[in-house]
Amino acid sequence: MKIDESMREGHYARKQIFCRDWLISWSHRRRFEVGLKLADQLAGKAILDYGCGDGTFLSLLMSLPNPPASAVGAELDPSVVADCRRRFAAQGNLTFLLADELDQPGHDGRYDAIVCMEVLEHVVEVDAMLDRFVRLLAPGGSLLVSVPVETGLPLLLKQSARRVAGWRGLGDYPGVNPYSWRDLWTGVFAGATQHLPRAIHGSPGGVPFHDHKGFNWRVMQAKLSERFQLAPVISSPLTWLPPQLASQVWLVARKPA
Questions:
Q1: Domain ranges within the chain, ordered by starting residue
Q2: Which of 12, 31, 81, 255 could lock onto 137 through a cystine, CB 3.0 to 4.6 A?
Q3: pLDDT at site 147
Q4: What is the distance between the alpha carbons of residues 224 and 211, in angstroms, rounded to a whole number?
Q5: Going by C-beta distance under 8 Å and a sequence separation of 6 or more, which residues neighbour residue 54?
Q6: Which stretches of the chain drop beneath a pLDDT of 50?
Q7: Residue 216: partners with Cβ closer than 8 Å, 6 or more residues away
Q8: Do 214 and 194 contact (CB within 8 A), yes or no?
Q9: Domain 5-150+199-254's class?
Q10: 95 by DSSP, 3-state: which?
């Protein structure tokens, strides 16, 4: 993975791939590496990174030997879009838009692939979001989704790591989402149905969102299967781990032609 030092300006990059904690840094770098390997098939195509954050993944993707022909990053916050446009102005085939601009003419069926990393676990209206992806993708287009594993043994390991990182003032973990012992038990033994109610957060007038608590990747997988043809699940940071023991998973799907 080719790291450009200018990426250190990115808000998320500073807390993730450049984090001072080696475990946090390694885990996020591995997720990016797996995503870049999956996206290697997109050479010469048009892609959309929905929820692109600080643009780090797109910049890495467009630096590959055989990059996509064009890439668009979409975000909700105008200040984030403006920052990405400033930092990556030199990459002419990389543009950034507000997410609502994707509803304008010219975007339906335009994209050969959509990448969505660590976003869908926070979305309240998931079905509407997935329907939007169907609309934006070209027939036969690919959807690459990365979501965290917040069930099973990984839940216990993550909550422990988050607490320690919060104590050290690292990453995005100033505290830990409160879990009762009953919540933890339910999460560790969660199946393929929603196992905990999910709280909705957000300030008045803002965009409502979920935190990680109660997210179940298998529920998301089932929602994707209603609209797309799914490939086998890919684990991260170690691809040889079974998904139920991974930190994150990549769900790879294809829109029917």
A1: 5-150+199-254
A2: 255
A3: 97
A4: 20
A5: 7, 9, 10, 11, 12, 13, 80, 83, 84, 87
A6: none
A7: 150, 151, 190, 192, 193, 194, 195
A8: yes
A9: alpha beta
A10: strand
